[in-house]
Amino acid sequence: MSAQSIPQTLLGLSQEMDHVGRQLLDRWDPELARRFTALSQCLQGVAEQGGADELLRANDELAAQLRAWLKRRRAPDDILGLRQQLSLVTQLASMPAPVKQTASAVTLRQNHRLFLWAGEREVDHYLVEQLACFGYQMDVFRDALLLQQALRQHTPGALVVYSDFMGEASLFPPGMPMPCPVLYASPRRDFEARLKAVRSGGQGFLAWPMQVRELLDALVLPQQQDRRNPLRVLLIEDMGSLAGLYSAVLNQHGILTEEVTRPSRALEAIERFRPDLILMDMYMPECDGKELARIIRQQGLMDGIPIIFLSMEKRQDIQLDTLALGVDGYLTKPVSSDELVVTVTTRARRYRKLRSYISTDSLTGLLNHTHLFARLEYEFARAQRERVPLVMVMLDLDHFKRINDNYGHQAGDEVLVNLARFLRERLRRSDLIGRYGGEEFALVLPGMTVDQAYRLLEAIRGDFELLDQQSPRGRFRQTFSAGLCGAEGVTDVVALVQRADAMLYRAKELGRNLVVAWSADAGAYLPPQP
Ligand SMILES: Nc1nc2c(ncn2[C@@H]2O[C@H](COP(=O)(O)OP(=O)(O)OP(=O)(O)O)[C@@H](O)[C@H]2O)c(=O)[nH]1
């Protein structure tokens, strides 16, 4: 048997076992049990060739249970146990062992290099410069062979392809794998051009000439958002090995998981882990999935969080009954890796998006005042408990009123969006960034000392100052001032915010475009020396 056909054979055998096994669970019949045992022995042989150790162990256990029941010549008393073991075996046989995360996938996460196919078109230097301010390097290509070669040697964060969709020759030889997302940029905006872009595998469509803001927005594809802030899935499955298998598959696709094997632990895990989706076994010994789903919905825990059931149950009436409980979907075991990942990712992303409308500011996409404060309380308490540093920053645009007056309110809005994006690019995932109100922003930097935060804010301030802001009435530059305060020795968040705010006020008094830090030693503001 060729190495490639082993997974297919395992899959075929497991489907047959699943079919016979279900009949056995409905009606105990020694003849069927013998057929089932023969299939299981066959599976054992194939799994040995394929080196599928976990499957071998699970199948061995299943075969032992069956032999014992066949000896006793009566139906097994532990139907749930048999169901679970069968479910584990068929699941293991239909999911290839997950591959470890490769180094190249990790590199892609921080990838700020972009390739642009511009053909004969002029590319505005200004675009390249402004992208550099946001930390992106753009390589422009005009020769198709050079582009193909570069794509074989490097993995950019994205490839932007200029096209007018007028039947130009394909840039790439047929079948050439594309290592990164492709975005199209075109002077056309019509339906036909958009359709051609979609059919060519484009993940985004931009106007040509490109605007910095539009391009930056398009670069944050759902996959990239997931990499910045991975989706979180809570697995409630009483069979630890099965939960481990689903976890490994999801982790391989960059999804964070937490496993709970006892339903009674589920509520605490939801509160703590804040998942974007719950994947739950239908049959569990303590309480079944339907009961647990009811408890979660009744408690209003994370309202509307998607719950997906995993079960061997194929009967449509039972599935419909379950969906009527407000459960969002049903995956029938054994589930393939692709089905699991696609189902989980699409639903979790949609839930996250809806939730973000509630917790974020609509203009900048940053945390709104209420949610920033709630998260600050949590981070402050954690920092005190674990005795780790934390810094609070208040940040305000300088003379912003003049921008509105001179360039218009819309240009002012653009500045707010640019600053939000700038902060997001430069801060860590664990930092909180919020719009405190109007032109004032607040940052919470857990684990950072005042000195570190000061140096970081100084660097951001210096770079933001150099960024050209665009408006129909011309280009201009904008600065900000910031005040910061460390949590050490501070009793509560109100005092922390007040001190950071007082430092911001000092920065304004001292002439603006400045960062001023609270120093506990001096009992007053004192910017640490870089
Ligand atoms: N475009 C725009 N402007 C806003 C928004 N929220 C607040 N502002 C404006 O921000 C300006 C804040 O003005 P001031 O509080 O006088 O402060 P400033 O002009 O920034 O001066 P300093 O803070 O003292 O440097 C006001 O003109 C507000 O209208 C917004 O969402 N969009």
UniProtKB/TrEMBL annotation:
Keyword Transport: no
Enzyme class: transferase
GO molecular function, one term: diguanylate cyclase activity
EC numbers, comma separated: 2.7.7.65
Record-annotated Response regulatory domain positions: 232-348
Ranges in a coiled coil: none
Gene3D superfamilies in alphabetical order: 3.30.70.270, 3.40.50.2300
Domain GGDEF per the UniProt entry, residue ranges: 388-520
Keywords: Nucleotidyltransferase, Phosphoprotein, Transferase
Pfam families: GGDEF, Response_reg
Catalytic activity: 2 GTP = 3',3'-c-di-GMP + 2 diphosphate
Recorded superkingdom: Bacteria
Modified residues (4-aspartylphosphate): 281
NCBIfam families assigned: GGDEF
Protein name, as recorded: diguanylate cyclase
Source organism: Vogesella aquatica
